[in-house]
Amino acid sequence: MLTSGIILLAGSLLSPNPGLIFWTAITFVIVLLILKKIAWGPIIGALEEREKGIQSSIDRAHSAKEESEAILRKNRELLAKADAESDKIIREGKDYADKLRADITEKAQSEAKKMIATAKDEIEQEKRRALDVLRNEVADLAVKGAEKIIKTTLDADMQKKIVDSMIQDLSTKRN
């Protein structure tokens, strides 16, 4: 019996039954219509909503990327300008420092030359004064010596005493 039941089942599945095909097709169409009415709209709506969300995210990502690239370009330009400006400022600072150093050096050299000239003039004046004083002293001594010579008669001892006296006078006046 088992064998005959299996054969019956196998025979009915393998042989096309027009009623079964009809009812299967009707059931498929009904299920398809029910799914279309109940589930197809929400599924398609959810898929479209999801697609819009994804497209919106992609668009935002593209615009953010473009915006960040624009900001990056602008920052690079600003950085290049800042570098150029800093180089210019440094160059101007160095030029100013060089000019200032040259001016200060020139002024210092000029001042040193003036000080040297002033010192030379003062030394020359002091030298002249000293020579004038020395001449006056020598003249005074010569006059005094001549006075002494004239007042007394000169012998060898007397001459020696006069010269010694003049030397003493000269040394006491210097000190």
Describe the protein's architecture and organization.
The structure is a single chain. This protein has helices spanning 2-14, 18-151, 156-174. It is mainly α. It has one domain. Helix 2 runs antiparallel to helix 3 (156-174). The longest helix is centred in the middle third of the chain and has 134 residues, at 18-151. The radius of gyration is 65 Å and the shape is rod-shaped. The N and C termini lie far apart (168 Å). Mean pLDDT is 84; it is low at 1-10.
Report the oligomer: single chain
Coarse shape:
rod-shaped
- Global mean pLDDT: 84
Radius of gyration: 65 Å
Helical percentage: over 70%
Tell me the count of domains: 1
Order of helices and strands: HHH
Describe the main β-sheet briefly.
Answer: none
Give the uncertain stretches in residue-range form: 1-10
Give the N-to-C terminal Cα separation: 168 Å
Tell me the strand percentage band: under 5%
- The tally of strands reads 0
- Which structural class do you get from the secondary structure elements? mainly alpha
Number of helices: 3
Keywords: ATP synthesis, Cell inner membrane, Cell membrane, CF(0), Hydrogen ion transport, Ion transport, Membrane, Transmembrane, Transmembrane helix, Transport
GO molecular function: proton-transporting ATP synthase activity, rotational mechanism; proton-transporting ATPase activity, rotational mechanism
Family: Belongs to the ATPase B chain family.
Membrane topology: Single-pass membrane protein
